[in-house]
Design a protein that fits this description.
The chain is of the alpha+beta class and 199 residues long. It contains 4 helices and 13 strands. It is globular.
């Protein structure tokens, strides 16, 4: 696993073994994950999302603690996967980084609790699966508008974004910060430290 430019985010670039039957790769290995992050991945929920071209999901995040870490890959089609640092007080606050996830390279992204997540479906149909450290809890789930000019995410041109009503009505980064929705960097660091201590 290779760290991304945002603290708490990594990309897995697995070795894909093709043959006449198809291909094989390991998309998660506990020892490699633990060596990169300093702790294991507690699995509470696994999600599968199917999106048509242009569907834009996010920027989603959860209250910390407990937050929700995600390990994400695209098993069919392609998406532009985006990690956003939403942790107030972080030196990277407001920064984002994008990784193309597709069914050829088989890359995967891990993002720690407190980071925001979004993705845009690039083809006719994209199937994204992700492992979550905690289960879905609506009262702890929030969203920042993915097209907020204040974030300035460089979404691909020529793909018309399709947002859910919830995502379309989401606050900007500045509005979310002013209303106290965003996690603090200090609480996230305390949570990461507790994860490392617990193994």
């Amino acid at each position: 696993m290779r760290p991304l430019g945002i603290e708490g985010a990594w990309v897995l670039e697995p070795r894909v073994l093709p043959d006449g039957r198809g291909s094989f790769h390991e998309w998660f290995r506990e020892p490699e994950f633990r060596a990169a992050t300093g702790h294991g991945l507690g699995l509470a929920q696994a999600n599968c999302s199917v999106s048509r071209r242009g569907v834009l999901r996010g920027v989603h995040f959860s209250d910390v603690p407990p937050g929700q870490a995600k390990y994400v890959t695209c098993v069919r089609g392609a998406v532009l996967d985006v990690v956003v640092d939403l942790r107030v007080g972080s030196s990277g606050f407001g920064r984002w980084e994008a990784v193309r996830l597709d069914d050829v390279t088989r890359h995967a992204v891990f993002l720690a609790e407190g980071l925001g997540h979004a993705f845009l479906a690039l083809g006719d149909e994209a199937t994204v699966v992700y492992l979550c450290s905690t289960g879905y809890a609506p009262e702890r789930e929030h969203v920042v508008h993915p097209l907020d000019p204040g974030l300035g995410i460089d979404w691909p041109r020529g793909v018309e974004p399709v947002l859910s009503p919830k995502d379309a009505a989401a606050p900007s980064l500045a509005e979310a910060r002013a209303s106290g929705l965003l996690p603090s960097y200090a609480s996230c660091r305390d949570h990461y430290r507790a994860l490392r201590l617990s193994g």
